Input
Amino acid sequence: MLQKIAMIARWRPVHNGHLPVLRALCQQAEQVIIGIGSANRYDLRNPFTLEETIDMLRLALEDSDNYTLVPIPDLDDGPRWRQMVKEQLGMLDLFVTDNPYVFSLLKDDYRIERPVALVPFPERIPLDGTTVRRTMARGAGWQSQVPPRVAEYILGHQLDVRFRREFGLQTLAQAVDSIPHNIS
Output
């Protein structure tokens, strides 16, 4: 078992693809640092507040007690961000990321693995936050894409309603923009 590992992601919202990764992190190390990336952002890609994201992570990790949640703000300056992350995380046995830019910034400081390397193949769930947010923007079906306790939290606080009101149309428009258009 590793002593200390860390992963930074946006987790907005915490979804079923995150769940096996979070479990694997907590099973493979004595101390886990879960960084909440873009902690200072509330926008189309980050449509839940830091506090809401913390609540969702705690619900998803209710069976684990060996983790610390750490807000990691965007600085819009890679070298400064790298230095801040190194100061906040300290020495690690392993850093986990699926973000190529984060990998490029931290590859000289930490041994890095992709999240899928920690999760056995049968437990992997191919799902990403963009897909969940698009489903939420459509208004139905997103509950099956997040852990049940997270779905209850989102519904109970009407975060799905707020998301659709504030970011729903932009999210759906972004989905249309990503469709290849063939012009004859």
Remarks:
- The CA atoms of residues 43 and 167 lie 8 Å apart.
- The first helix runs from residue 18 to 28.
